[in-house]
Amino acid sequence: MKFSIINNSFKYELEKVCRLFMPFEKFVFVTVDSDEDGVLTARYINGDLAELYVSVKVDGQMAERRQSIALSSEDYENTSELVLCTLLHDCLHEITGYKPQWGILTGVRPAKLLSRLYSEMGKEQGMKYLKEKLLVSNSKAMLCDRCLSHEEKIISRSTPQSFSLYVAIPFCPSRCNYCSFVSHSIENAGKLIPEYLELLCKEIEYTAVLAKKANLKLQTIYIGGGTPTTLEAVGLEKLFSKIAECFDLRALEEYTVEAGRPDTITYEKLQTIKNAGVTRISINPQTMNDEVLRSIERKHTAQQTIDAYKLAIDVGFQNINMDLIAGLYGDTIESFSNTLDQILALSPQSITVHSLSMKRSSTLTKANAFFGLEQGKVADGMVKMAYERLTAANILPYYMYRQGKTVGNLENVGYAKPGYEGLYNVYIMDETHTILACGASAVTKLRQPNGNNIERIFNYKYPYEYINEFGTMLDRKNKVSEFYELYSF
User: Fold this and answer.
1) Would you list the DSSP string of 134-149?
2) What is the C-alpha separation between 375 and 336, in angstroms, rounded?
3) At a CB cut-off of 8 Å and minimum separation 6, what does 416 contact?
4) What is the Cα–Cα distance from 318 to 419, expressed in whole angstroms?
5) Distance between CA 266 and CA 307 in Å, rounded?
6) Which of 57, 76, 110, 260 is the most exposed place for a label (fewest CB within 10 A)?
7) DSSP state of 459
8) Closest CA to 374 of 426, 316, 403, 332
9) 83 vs 375: CA distance, rounded Å
10) Degrees to nearest 5, angle at CA 156 with 383 and 420
11) Helix axes 110-121, 138-155, angle to 10 degrees
């Protein structure tokens, strides 16, 4: 589809709005008008005014909007961008009948935006701006506000010297067909694990040296993936021992391992995790519908989830998170309700409800199994049901983020019983403090002490790259020292 951009430089922002309505459309960007189906965004100067105009034509249906603003307007460029995005949203809404509940908001951190609006405008005006200017629905605005109130309490626990450690284990027993993470099945990449783990331990050791040199204080650890429990107990023990050897864990506030797949969980592995001082684990069913589990190529059953959870309780874990996904192919409102019934019966300390994201690299997306407006409505019903059922059980929303190309343009929300909120989840989403990350595809985020500047250090993405280019990658980590020489406490 042709996408005409005339006399404005808002390509990125306008395309993002279009993708709320047409997530998989291929756009050809041009700087001239066209009679073909497509999108036209233009800004024409007429005396002291800028005439902003948008037209959209899809399968013969046409919608257009226009609005004038003064060239002398305060913050003229940002105002032009906001108006054009709003006009485009209204045109697409007219043609499709679909109204995104997050309006024209496309960022991944709505609570962080709302915090800034409150700081700049006050709470009443900030909320008004979110709903009236960014077109966010009342229910999503209230959810955002509720999450922010919980996030702020957690953020206040961080200091300028705080940092979190993230360790990536990019292996899984098999690859789910909705997955876009850098994870490799054991069948295809299992032979890489011994060398990968050996080098990962070396990176952890070097990272600890850099953290000590920068005088950073470790606050939380998160071991994610992939599925960390793809490692055997002896591999987990090696990893935990290296972390304990290199870092001072005495003041650690949270230590999380994403056990993830129930089919990887054994008593021996759980005991190894517990003995390492891990305080929080995730056991992630995604759904308790066996038919849906098969359709997404997840190689376990609902009963295995129940068994793994009970095993974790027997080992002594008292802080367990469980992940669910709203909008999975073949899932229904009724079966999602049954999933909630079973999960609530287990009574985990926290539950994270994700909305299915149709990422470009997932098997589902490559197979053109795209989801339309009807599937979005079903997912929306699931998300609303989760909110109602979980909050009624005093499992409250405490953090939230969004991803592109989610079914129904929905959000991911972490719910927790009071006192069991996942600290790392908030710190990574808010970009509260530095995250030192180790492993394939890991991204270190350096947060300026007492400031807002953030710099990133990217590790190689795939395990074989990580192994082959380990020396080069390790050299990149020296940017940690350079950063903290530039920004002192």
Assistant:
1) S---HHHHHHHHHHHH
2) 14
3) 321, 349, 350, 351, 395, 396, 398, 422
4) 12
5) 10
6) 76
7) P
8) 332
9) 30
10) 45
11) 90
> Which residue spans within 313-423 are E strands per DSSP?
320-326, 350-355, 396-402, 411-416
Stated as kind and residue range, the H or E segment containing 2 is strand 2-6
Q: Is 186 exposed, middle or buried (0-12, 13-18, 19+ CB in 10 A)?
A: middle
Cα–Cα distances in angstroms (integers) from residue 149 to residues 142, 384, 396, in the given order: 11, 20, 11
With contact defined as beta carbons under 8 Å apart, do 395 and 384 qualify? Answer: no
E strand residue ranges, 173-286:
184-185, 217-225, 254-260, 280-283
- Dist CA 448 CA 455 (whole Å): 8
CA 75 to chain centre: 31
Helices 110-121, 123-132: inter-axial angle, 10-degree rounding: 130
Residue 235: which residues within 8 A CB-CB, separation 6 or more?
A: 193, 197
**CATH entry 1.10.760.10 includes domain 2-96:** no
- The full set of domain ranges for the chain reads 2-96, 110-144, 154-476
Contact at 8 Å (CB) between 443 and 422?
Answer: no
Tens-binned pLDDT, residue by residue, of the chain (489 aa):
999 999 999 999 999 999 999 888 899 999 887 778 899 999 999 999 999 999 999 988 999 999 999 999 989 999 999 999 999 999 999 999 999 999 999 889 999 999 999 999 999 999 999 999 999 999 999 999 999 999 999 999 999 999 999 999 999 887 666 665 555 666 667 899 999 999 999 999 999 999 999 999 999 999 998 899 999 999 999 999 999 999 999 999 999 999 989 999 999 999 999 999 999 999 999 999 999 999 988 889 999 999 999 999 999 999 999 999 999 989 999 999 999 999 999 999 999 999 998 765 444 444 444 446 778 889 999 999 999 999 999 999 999 999 888 888 999 999 999 999 999 999 999 999 999 999 999 999 999 999 999 999 999 999 999 999 999 999 999 999 999 999 988
The CATH number of the structural domain formed by 154-476 is 3.20.20
Residue 364: count other Cβ atoms within 10 Å of its Cβ: 22
Long-range contacts of 68-75 (CB under 8 A, 24+ apart): 71/45, 72/48
Distance CA 468, CA 459 (A): 12
- Cα–Cα separations (whole angstroms), residue 462 to 120, 174, 189, 439: 42, 16, 11, 9
One-letter amino acid for residue 461 of the chain: K
For residues 327 and 407, the answer to whether their CB atoms sit within 8 Å is: yes
- Do the beta carbons of residue 142 and residue 262 sit within 8 Å? no
The answer, as to whether pTM is greater than 0.85, is yes
